[in-house]
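Forgive a beginner's question, but might I ask you for the amino acids of a protein and the tokens describing how it folds?
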Amino acid sequence: MSIDRAVLAFAGTVILLSLALSQWHSPYWLLLTAFVGANLLQSAFTGFCPLAIILKRFGFRPGCAFE
């Protein structure tokens, strides 16, 4: 799995988890959803993604977005 796909899978999982937690526990979990969305948006323009850096250190192969 490339870094690009791993970042998207992780972001999708965190968003779905935070949406579920906002329904079961507290609506403040939607702040996590907003944070992930904002991070995805800024990484689209800047190319900087902290998760991509971590995954590269773990040996994931880079895709075309995070080379």
